[in-house]
Amino acid sequence: IEVSYSEVGIALCQRKYTLDILSDASLSDCKPSDSPMDPLVKLDNEKGELLHDPEKYRCLVGKLNYLTITRPDISFAVSVVSQYMSAPRTTHQAVLHIVRYLKGHLHIAGYSDPDCLEVTGYSDGDWAGCPVDCRSTSGYCVFLGGNLVSWKSKKQSVVSRSSAEVEYRAMANVTGELQWIHMLLAEIGFSVTRPSTLHCDNQSAMHIASNSVFHERTKHIEMDCHFVREKVKCGELKLVHTRSEEQLADIFTKPL
């Protein structure tokens, strides 16, 4: 990771590392792609001809995983292809698509502003997005002082039976991350007095967070419900409804 200092702040970059990935994949002179993933391609581990030697594919995926440290824009795409280690040829093409996207987007930098300690999170989820096991993908991003400092895109470990359940599990994940960031800031001597703000675009999930009555439709997510509701009740978390068009965490659950 390249770190550069200026009067504006600190910038993190992996441009040289990205160029090395392009070279390793023999795509230094390739035509760039506009998006990290083709939304029309549905990957399936059981279909298509397998690669004879998937070792190079796995090595490339591993390098892309490390690149997501500073590149949230490829987090979802890399999370998806990481699930297919047996590497059908269609999945390998999806990995090369990510590399071609990097060709046209070599430099994305983040700047830190230590004077503002407002912590804000966005959470999102897609329902039954995986065509193989019908599991959903959770995504979130966290801003500190207006700067993106934490993000994740990950397939959920269980099959959710409603979109509200998917969204609530995503809310629970980002709530844990917000709590960890507060503890980290306290350890290094910064006091954050304002509650964290969590943006969600699902009204049902937000209603569950404020409703203390469980019924047969919500008992199966009771643990996550209590965790988020506890933070809301004690004033550490403030929930804000956000329109889907303004949901920044969308890039962690969808190809585009």
From TrEMBL:
<dbReference type="InterPro" id="IPR043502">
    <property type="entry name" value="DNA/RNA_pol_sf"/>
</dbReference>
<protein>
    <recommendedName>
        <fullName>RVT_2 domain-containing protein</fullName>
    </recommendedName>
</protein>
